[in-house]
Amino acid sequence: MFEFSFLFGQFLGGITAAMFLFLIASGLSLIFGVLRVLNFAHGSFYMIGAYLAWQFVHLIAPAPEGFWLAALAAAVSIALLGAIVERALLRHLYSREELYQLLFTYALVLILGDMAKIVWGTQQLSVSRPPSLAGSSEVFGVTIPHYNLFIMGLGPSIAVGAWYVLQHTPLGRIVRAAALDRETLGALGANVGWVYTGMFMAGSFLAGLGGALVTPIKSIVPGMDVEIIVEAFIVVVIGGLGSFWGTFLGALIYGQVLSFGILIFPRFSIFAVSVLMAAILIIRPWGLFGRPLK
Amino acid sequence: MKRVMLAVIGLAALLVPAHSRAQQPIKVGYPMILSGPGALFGEPALKGAQMYVEEINGKGGVLGRKLELITRDTKGNADEAVRVSRELILKDNVDFLVGTLTSAEGPAVSTIAKENKIVFIAPIPKTDQLTAPANLHPYVFRTASNTTIEGRTAAEIVAKWPVKKIATIAPDYAYGQDVAKAFVEHIKKLKPEVEIVDQQWPKLGEADYTPFINAQMGKKPEAVFSALWGGHFLTFAKQAKPLKYFDSINYNFIAGGEGASIESTRAMGADYPVGIWGNAYDAFNWDGAPPAHKDYIARISAYTKQDPPSSWPVTGYVGMQMLVEAIKKANSVDSEKVAKALLDLTIDTPIGKQTMSGKDHQANRGQVWGKTVIDPKYPFAIMKDILYIDPTPFMN
Amino acid sequence: MKRVPWTLIVFAAGLLVPLLGSRFYTFVATDIVILSLFAMSLNLLLGYTGLVSFGHAAYFGIGAYTCALLMKHANAPFVPSLIAAGLMAAAAALLFGFFCVRLTRIYFAMLTLAFAQIVWAICFKWNDVTGGEQGLPNVPYPGLDWMGSVPVLGGFRVADHFYLCALSVVALCFAGLRRIVDAPFGRVLTVIRDNAERAQFIGVNVRAYQLAAFVLAGFFAGISGGLFGIFNRGVFPDFAFWTKSAEPLIMTILGGMGSFWGPAVGAAAFIVLNQQITSYTEYWPLTMGTVLIVLLFVFPGGIAGTLLGLLERGRVRAGRGGTAAGAAPMVKRNA
Lengths: 294, 396, 335
What we know:
The structure holds three protein chains of three kinds. Chain A is 72% helix and 3% strand. Chain A is mostly helical. By secondary structure, chain B is an alpha/beta fold. In chain B, 40% of the residues lie in helices and 17% in strands. Chain B has 13 helices and 14 strands. Chain B has helices at residues 2-15, 39-58, 78-90, 105-116, 147-158, 174-190, 210-218, 230-240, 245-248, 262-268, 292-304, 313-330, 335-342; strands at 26-32, 67-73, 96-98, 120-122, 140-142, 165-169, 195-200, 223-226, 253-255, 277-280, 346-349, 352-355, 368-374, 381-388. In chain B, helix 5 (147-158) crosses helix 6 (174-190) and helix 12 (313-330) packs across helix 13. Chain C is 70% helix and 1% strand. The longest helix of chain C has 27 residues, at 23-49. The two termini of chain C are 33 Å apart. Classes of the chains: A mainly alpha, B alpha/beta, C mainly alpha. Chains in contact: A-B, A-C, B-C. Chain A binds chain C through residues 38, 89, 92-100, 102-104, 106-111, 113-115, 118, 226, 230, 233-234, 237, 241, 267, 270-271, 273-275, 277-278, 281-282, 285-287, 290, 292-293, and chain C through 46, 52, 99, 102-107, 110-111, 113-115, 117-118, 121, 124-125, 242-243, 246, 249-250, 253, 283, 285-286, 288-290, 292-293, 296-297, 300, 330, 332-335.
């Protein structure tokens, strides 16, 4: 019915869509895994990361590969923003209901969205692909832009990197312990407060990096924060809250369901993510790799 | 001493405004999206209305009274648009409403205008529903184009291309569905041998279009009509270009939803898929425009400190102009009389003569269409040989 | 302790609003009355059962569409349409709730969100029935012409008549909610909220009770949605969007989820705040967000919670003791 190259292209399209979402969802998953905070403002960090990348690219316009420096600078700035938010405000809410933390991050969405509008206005902005990845190649009759290849490689690299740090380094052990039992770790002398700050910064860094790295394939517009956040949440939930690999797998499944779903039901796109999540949570209440919350 | 006297008189005048109603400004409520994704169009549309009001007030106002524009953010929600419109009427006592942007906000506010018997002019919403017979009432008017006009105009252009296999891509909601339907129906009528080989329906705000682009290329269309607007079109084009999507259809692509507006081409610069066709509400380099257009472009450029200026302010400008000309004709600010004056009113706007149809309260508002080219004078693509297709023949 | 009949007192005070003669006050009061029912319905889950629903707008939206469709297209009378709105929302809540109550905490919240997004997507896309993105404008007012022949009421406008009608419906619902939370059923809900495991242990079918609370909350949200659709003169997919679900949460936190009247107080505060801020500045999100953060940090118990706390302190000082009426403040389940 379909040619192989077409199906292969559709498969790759699904992978791109998946890794695109994973870039944003990974930081969300990291923060939830340790801090148990569902951060609505993650979408805002992502958006400001994109705006900052545009700003930095324009400050260093003459450099041909300036994009990479700009993306890194944007991600670091967002990590610092995350540190300020966590140290100054969020940590005072850890002892309170989850709902308070949710509403706090929702208030941040309002504030950060308006700040972006004040600084960058309402006009759409765009960043070009860096010249080194502007081309494309043909594989099995399918055109693959090099930048998409880069995104496809970046997702798994982030996943493997985070896994290595968490599982095989002393720092990772402290972080995992903090996620499991905060009080005992504190009693053992570790500075749990700073572990939390560090994790929030790492998650924010990923949000900023995600925002910066999507600018070559996505326009920067007001409202891009709210547009993405629910889908990112859902991918994290599908995988199982707090499970990094689960989020990765959740994104991959979402990408393929979307990509092949639209071949059968052309008007399916709007339902894809919610239906997938409802289906998975009904079958596996704690997501793919998740465990029941205590 | 004399100055003190004047001040006292001035203060007294402020304190007894009831006696001098003629001195009070004519209040116009302007509900518009000023935050979130729609602010992209709402902000410049507000600028156009503001400039018009300043210009009129500079010339002494209307009927000897100044105009006052009272703006509220609708947040892009129909229920919030209803709430602020009622607040404008009940608390701020506005005489008229001009505004709204989305196809949900327009009809929602229209209900409120009907309830309060206040003239409401919609400068941007394109949905046919707004002025469809079932929803029409004496107080609602539209200076925007509509989905039928937009889809059929695109079909007129594509029918002249040497292509038979045609596809569409449009956001999966009322606007996208209506405009795609108008396009498909009209092109089949104009050129019966045309075959619609594929229709893609990404959701509004889709993050990644790659699967849709790939699926469409798989059906091997020769030409494509798109109704993705604003940032969505930009994202789509940025992802489609390196996939060689535009090459595969020889750039036989026509972007409705203002895909060739200067906002899009300027933002994308060299990344824009130059060579495609598209439309816009206005173009600074529109040579065939009426003489007043050049002057308008210079004024709006100075007012918004942007050169070349945005294509959206003209929507707010013409909406306000239509209202003011009707007030002049009626010689009254009574909504009943102004609504009557609007019927079959023809005014001279920067984009030419606009007539408010007495039958369906829709102005003959077309859009400009053209093929995008690179002009060495500008760092972004511009429309060449701009066409303004008079919508009158397709308005029914 | 003798109970003050607050529902009656507030209802009687509400009746006086149209006498002020301002169309604007009636408009704001209608908004408050209807949305306070929305917030109160959510608090049955949040404050009494300890379930954080992130998709309560789904039931509000279903109620709004049901009532509007019946009144606009089937010319059905107001009362049956409104009851149908509540029942449809309750039916949806039963279906979705069956799956949701099997999950806890954040998973529960996320599944309610997913179902709400599905409802939103259906409203957004089903053009033939829901009108798609454009919704259903032009929802008719109920036929309240009989009020015109009643002395005093005769002088009022249509909007005033509808306000009185909404006020009566909401007062009835409040009385119903009061009965529910005071009944043994309501007591069991608070036991589940405080410690679901213990409740299970003493033989309570926790899921069944949670589901019942979910369905009741859906019913009242549906009634509130039905009224809001008429008040708004149109229903739109936004009614079921996730940002709409955040509103009653904010109202409840603002007012205080620890007391019966908290959400209603919060709804009033939220509406007045939103109205004031949006009419003074285009930068309302910045202002609103800042206000929210200050509230979260300075008044963790909400307005009603803070007032009750002050009252309590006064009583303790006066040596009388006793507990405040309604639900006890939530315990920290997170610590």
